[in-house]
Amino acid sequence: MEDFEIYLNMAKNFLLKSGVDILIALAILLIGLFIIGRIVKVLGNVMTKKGSDPSLISFLTSLTSIGLKALLIITVASRVGIPTTSFVAVLGAAGLAVGLALQGTLSNFAGGVLVLLFKPYKVSHLIEAQGHTGWVKEIQIFVTILTTPDNKTVIIPNGAISNGNITNYSTLGKIRVDLIMGISYNSDIKKAKEVLLHTMQQHDKVMKDPAPFVGVESLGDSSVNLAVRPHCTPEDYWDVYFDIYEAGKIALDEAGIEIPFPQVDVHMKPENA
């Protein structure tokens, strides 16, 4: 009976000394959880109004919630007298170890966040990055997936793509198709230019503005090389590329303009010369 009274008195003393701290800690916990919920909700609403990517919204709100709750738990533990110095040190060491082990993955993650935030390209855009050209099929947190013109899937880590050069052919909604067509030195350059301009103007996927252009690009060994420059949408690039080459060849043939093949002049010296 005496032992029971001793334990009872110890419990009373503990409650008298720590009861207020426990109540305050509970209050901090409840109020903190409410405030964190509001912060996460406001963050999600703001990002949604700004048109941020849904996957980025979900990730950042979850990350914010976890980080703030971790800080809240440390604060509550400190309030009730639990030593938090060693606890924080262990968390820091564990975080450093995980960071070193996942250095490449974290780099890709950071790159994905930057891509989703600053939007250097979007899904369906035609881009060139890391030596690959293709349409953006997916933008994930760690990688960007492209579909190439020959229907291959290219997966590029976001760390590399965010730190490298990106050429976006879709930003302006138009792209120039660069073609070279050679005619013989005996052909009428002015007539050839008119024929090729007419060919491009008749193509339904070639833009009227900017207007198609034809000009002398260089004087080759066997031909006068004409630069043929139609504009089109990025989606029509390859259709225009192949169509204009084919239609241009047919139109030049019909106009009697020769497209030469490489030639070499050989001069023979007489034996007695």
Oligomeric state of the chains in view: single chain
Number of helices: 7
What structural category do the secondary elements indicate? alpha+beta
Q: What's the helix-strand series?
A: HHHHEEEEHEEEHEEEH
Low confidence ranges: none
CATH class of the largest domain: Mainly Alpha
Report, as a whole number of angstroms, the end-to-end distance.
138 Å
Fraction in helix: 40-55%
> Largest sheet, if any?
5 strands, antiparallel
Give an overview in words.
With 273 residues, the chain is α+β, with helices and mostly antiparallel strands. It folds into three domains: 9-101, Orthogonal Bundle (Helix Hairpins); 120-168, SH3 type barrels; 175-254, Alpha-Beta Plaits. 53% of the residues lie in helices and 17% in strands. The chain has helices at 2-49, 54-79, 85-101, 103-118, 158-163, 189-202, 237-254; strands spanning 126-129, 132-139, 143-147, 153-157, 166-168, 175-176, 179-183, 213-219, 224-229, 231-232. The protein has a five-stranded antiparallel β-sheet. Strand 3 (143-147) and strand 4 form a beta hairpin. Helix 1 runs antiparallel to helix 2 (54-79) and helix 6 crosses helix 7. The longest helix has 48 residues, at 2-49. The protein is elongated. The N and C termini lie far apart (138 Å).
Index terms:
Alpha-Beta Plaits, SH3 type barrels, 5-stranded antiparallel β-sheet, single chain, 7 helices, 273 residues, Helix Hairpins, 3-stranded antiparallel β-sheet, 10 strands, alpha+beta, 3 domains
Question: In summary, what is this structure?
Answer:
Helix content is 53%, strand content 17%.
